[in-house]
Amino acid sequence: MQINPSGIWNDVDIIRKKSPLVHNITNYVVMNNTANALLALGASPVMAHAEPEVADMVGIAGALVINIGTLSDAWIKAMFIAAARAKELNIPIVLDPVGVGATSYRTRTARELIHTAPPTIIRGNGSEIMALCDRDVATKGVDSTSTSDLAIDSAMILSRELGAVVCVTGETDYIVSGESQVSVKNGHPMMPRVTGLGCTATALCGAFASVNSDPFPATAHAMAVMGIAGEMAAETAKGPASLQVNFIDALYQLCETDIQAFFKA
Amino acid sequence: MQINPSGIWNDVDIIRKKSPLVHNITNYVVMNNTANALLALGASPVMAHAEPEVADMVGIAGALVINIGTLSDAWIKAMFIAAARAKELNIPIVLDPVGVGATSYRTRTARELIHTAPPTIIRGNGSEIMALCDRDVATKGVDSTSTSDLAIDSAMILSRELGAVVCVTGETDYIVSGESQVSVKNGHPMMPRVTGLGCTATALCGAFASVNSDPFPATAHAMAVMGIAGEMAAETAKGPASLQVNFIDALYQLCETDIQAFFKA
Amino acid sequence: MQINPSGIWNDVDIIRKKSPLVHNITNYVVMNNTANALLALGASPVMAHAEPEVADMVGIAGALVINIGTLSDAWIKAMFIAAARAKELNIPIVLDPVGVGATSYRTRTARELIHTAPPTIIRGNGSEIMALCDRDVATKGVDSTSTSDLAIDSAMILSRELGAVVCVTGETDYIVSGESQVSVKNGHPMMPRVTGLGCTATALCGAFASVNSDPFPATAHAMAVMGIAGEMAAETAKGPASLQVNFIDALYQLCETDIQAFFKA
Fold first, then answer.
1. Which residues of A define the annotated binding site for substrate?
2. Residue in C with minimal Cα distance to A70
3. Residue C77: which CATH number?
4. How close, in Å, is residue B246 to chain A by CA atoms?
């Protein structure tokens, strides 16, 4: 598979026209940012986590995004209910295994989730993807201690085992689907200094997967848009907070010529 | 009733002088933004949702704002306790029925709330007000699929039934009290692309209702201030994130001449 | 003890080099801002509150920050588990008694916390420190009704009783350790109009305490950095939202000459 600007733009254009509903069961830290990123891109975000309503909400959504960043038992139950319903309805599931490896609670939860209701797409940093795959890895909280390229093997194993697209983000983003692999080289070194931009990348995968029936290019397109908006944002950013503001504004302004000018595979 | 700049300014001026405590039981996505909007305007926000403390917190507040955006059973219990206490103490209650119609859980909760402890003010988008009134309406998550004018009938029915002021926001905001109705035409088309500006409008109703004993003009004044600050913010915004930043700054800077220059009824 | 720019800079420099993990059990309103402040400074934040994982997370952290801003029973249990584990491992604990005095639930919780697992550092506004010490104090939600100097006596009593550093923030910040006391006069009057900058100050204490084994200068250095970044931010801020953005950017850009130029004891 080849990723190119016109394919990326095509997905963005459909998201803006259709405004797909993306149902997020995500962490408290990033909810505001991911909702704003989805809105700026053109999608319609909803956050809902109560057991009595998640199945209903999945039923009207174009994608389900599950992020375990601030999980607790009640939320885990809702994640399983929502994921099961998404499977029934054939709605794409995107998983962000935040901090897997840092505590056994996170590792166990994420592994149960991927085996009970295999996600369509998994996106994490190098440490998380390696820990999810049960590889030896030093972890430190929710920030990666591994570069993304060290995690490619783990991504391939997970992808084959689960039939999922696995995306490892870092200086280079690797998107793996079975034996196939593409990379995206967009992005800016200041981006990891903004909390939740990884979670935002995962949320954008939901938007792209809701309009593109093939999750492999959908994921790569989402990563390209993340990185391109990040580079556009960095041009005038004075630090991580103005980078975050500029990033959301860039998602809103993004046009086909920006993608052509910035895209790096 | 007529809404005019000097009436709007009078309320803003009292909020700044008295700094009323506004108790919010609201959703995770918007807490930070609504707290900042209340602080920028001059009010004093507090977020508290635990069953053991909500009644105490209501007891020292000037208004109670209930927003069901990310509700769960424990939070619903707290909402009922807080609303009952507010009724006892004659403290104004403002309800934001976020996403009513999207799931039966939200619809049921909101209807129980309005019938158990009728709010002083209800603010929602067109879809939400119609769904709350049991009208046929297509819903999609938390974003409206109806324009505000289609919901005026529903607002009038709810207002008469509950004795509440009902506010439907959209391109034009309609504020209904029994047979009376006023409209506010301020605002900017980019505002719905910022998550939680509707929730912020609801929170501001709490601030205005805490200083103006008549909730009808209080609600209209809050909507005017929202729309005016949004228009001021849009003048230099490059997208939804800089709009949000400028909006909070505009609430802080807002002076009587701004209201005179921008107000559109 | 004397606070000076080179001592402040030394701590900042170590934080940037070591990127210590700071485990926060904090409130929903400020999570995003405090995570971003810690990242901008150079630390690595993690938010985790589930009973089954907090002890594990404390075990890999350099400091534990407990903030009771939006507490509930489940979170209180996690706070006690995490604090007990931090005591066992000799990891510094920083407590922010948000809104103590506003409800008996908060007051009782904070007092139980400080007596069960005495924190290394307590940071609050004047009202909170006085209420925590059982002094007569009028409270209003989470904003202070007392100036910081009125609370110095309470800070000294708490410090002696608990063996903790107690920090009262306000126009002047007072840092008390037993009979010793230092003050920091940096900051800007617009800072209290941004929600959660007090909570951010507390989170920064965690970062400084994780690299400086003496919590007395660590706390003073954290307050100096808060105030200096606030003054730098205010230079071009148009209101509280641009102040918040500039503040995070200033934490990221902060260099030794800024500290030399701005520090006021």
1. 47, 196
2. C48
3. 3.40.1190.20
4. 11
